[in-house]
Amino acid sequence: MATSAIAAPWRRVKWTRAGQLAGPAQVEAALAGWQDAPPAAAFAMLRAADPQAALRFLAHSLPRFDAVRWLRECLALTPAPADGSARAELRGGIAAWLADPSDKRRRLVFEQAQRAGFDVPEGAAGVAVFLSGGALGPAELAQGAPPAPGAFGQAVAAAVLLASLAQGSQRLAVQIDAMLALGQSIAETEESH
Q1: CB atoms inside a 10 Å sphere around CB 166
Q2: 161 domain residue, yes or no
Q3: 34, 69, 77, 179: which could join 42 in a potential S-S bond, CB 3.0 to 4.6 Å?
């Protein structure tokens, strides 16, 4: 476990042991033997062995607001969409939600994601924002159903992976590494914004 000695602490993550995270089965399997390690050390091990597992682990580790900040920074590494396009509008909607994370803005981002399409990085990021909290049903319902446990982290991981592919599969490893560095930086910072 020499990795834990060199890993900077994750100040933004509330968990003290990697095994406390409820992530997808692929991440739990990749963490075999590392469940008692601090999240930063487990992340470093995953990043070296399986960057996509590290991406999923980080997506489930970060607090929701910080995970959306990570998504915004990952989107900034992708080619900019055409001005006035649904994708450009959605990037602005995500930034607006970060400035004011209200339910109204969360729902607006989801509407923008539907127009952009869920098969593009911005659309997947919009789904993640929608799953970040609040009810899934119409706003006028007195009590709605919350997202399934783990749905937000899975949506974040999918959006980051799509963003990693935005410059082509030949650059996937380089892009994932750059995006993992962005997320790690957020995890290590004291303040969320």
Answers
A1: 17
A2: yes
A3: 34
